[in-house]
Specification:
By secondary structure, the protein is an alpha+beta fold. It is built from 11 helices and 18 strands. Strands 3-2-1-9-10 form a 5-stranded mixed sheet, with helices on both faces. It has a 5-stranded mixed sheet with strand order 13-12-11-17-18, sandwiched between helices. It has a 3-stranded antiparallel sheet with strand order 5-4-6. About 3% of the residues have low confidence.
Length: 348
């Protein structure tokens, strides 16, 4: 009778238990629930209502992102992640909890496991903050995996073999460049130049050249719609609205892809230098593997037109964009989650 009761408790516990894979990014957070095909993809944005010393979350994710630049003084839309790490612990915990609840649905979760990706050069203090934020959101077992490692797994690279594989993961807050072999990072570099820095560069360039101020959301649209790292066969244009810095009234202006390329030039050069520096630290035997296999790009920044072409010319190596660059990290975390014992050595 006791064994039957224990079995019943175990079955009830399994009903309220979930395994989750999360790519916690500065710009977007992706959540996969084990056993489901879909992936929740939400902006890493939280809208906070302030009254005195009290703060209350009023919106999370896409609902909060719509409020950026449009809120009254007592409501502020913020990104609790900055440069790939937690900038606001309590808000990040609430954001993770909200995303998990949205991904899981009405089903509760008592005993849960979570694997969450973090930048390659994250400090022990930052690791602890990620773990605590996840546990505060209601997760019992929290594992961490480095984003370039997860991206390499998601891109199908042979990370467990004695072969050199190179991945460049361009996220919102950081770019991770890494050479991987035998389940470890042989050479790596985390660059605080990524999607957010690209957007800021576009805002500053347009302000200086056209004397109008645009928002970061408009800059992001310009980057994804007409941005490029190398000249295009047919250059593109896009009309945007901003505030004239002289008259103070709204004004429309036409932006060209050449202008966006000029705005991104310094950031792209830093990215190229980081890739070259990582290659220089790579042992010769693994360099030979990379010559054969090439460099794989993933993350939102990999979608910038002709970035692979530019890197191919700069490094004299083949460069490819991952099949699903936006989901490479979460796909890798999901693979590790599905075979946790097999990939145990990849975890921090």
């Amino acid at each position: 009778m006791i064994s039957g009761f224990v079995g019943l408790i175990d079955r009830i516990r399994s009903w309220f238990s979930v395994d989750l894979a999360i790519d916690l990014g500065t710009a977007n957070t992706l959540v996969h629930v084990r056993g489901r095909d879909e992936v929740l993809n939400e902006p890493s944005v939280v809208a906070i209502h302030r009254r005195g010393n009290q703060k209350r979350v009023v919106a999370v994710g896409s609902d909060a992102k719509k409020m950026i630049g449009k809120t009254p003084g007592n409501i502020k839309a913020i990104r609790p992640m900055r440069d790939g790490v937690i900038a606001d612990f309590n808000v990040t915990a609430k954001m993770i909890g909200a995303f998990i609840q949205k991904a899981v649905g009405k089903r509760g979760y008592l005993s849960s496991r979570l694997i969450i990706s973090v930048p390659a050069e994250i400090t022990s203090i930052e690791q602890k903050a990620v773990r605590q934020a996840s546990q505060k959101a209601g997760i019992h077992q929290v594992y961490l995996i480095e984003q370039p490692m997860a991206a390499a797994v998601g891109a199908g690279l042979p990370v467990r073999e004695a072969k050199g594989s190179m991945i460049v993961d361009i996220g919102g807050g950081t770019t991770d460049v890494a050479v991987i072999s035998l389940e470890g990072l042989v050479a790596s570099q985390t660059l605080r130049v990524a999607g957010d820095r690209f957007d800021e560069a576009i805002v500053n360039f347009i302000r200086k050249k056209h004397n109008i101020l645009i928002g970061v959301r408009t800059a992001e649209k310009l980057k994804m719609s007409i941005g490029s790292a190398a000249p295009l066969d047919e250059e593109l244009t896009m009309d945007v609205n901003g505030r004239d810095l002289i008259s103070g009234v709204p004004r429309a202006v036409t932006i060209t892809s050449e202008e966006i390329r000029a705005a991104l030039d310094d950031s792209i050069k830093q990215l190229v230098r980081a890739v070259k520096a990582t290659l220089e630290k790579t042992p010769p035997e693994l360099s030979a593997d990379i010559i054969d296999r090439g460099i794989v790009l993933c993350g939102g920044g990999a979608l910038i037109r002709n970035l692979d072409v530019l890197l191919t010319e700069a490094c004299s190596l083949p460069v490819f964009v991952a099949e699903n660059p936006l989901h490479a990290v979460v796909d890798g975390v999901r693979t590790v989650l599905d075979s946790l014992e097999e990939y145990q050595r990849l975890l921090l």
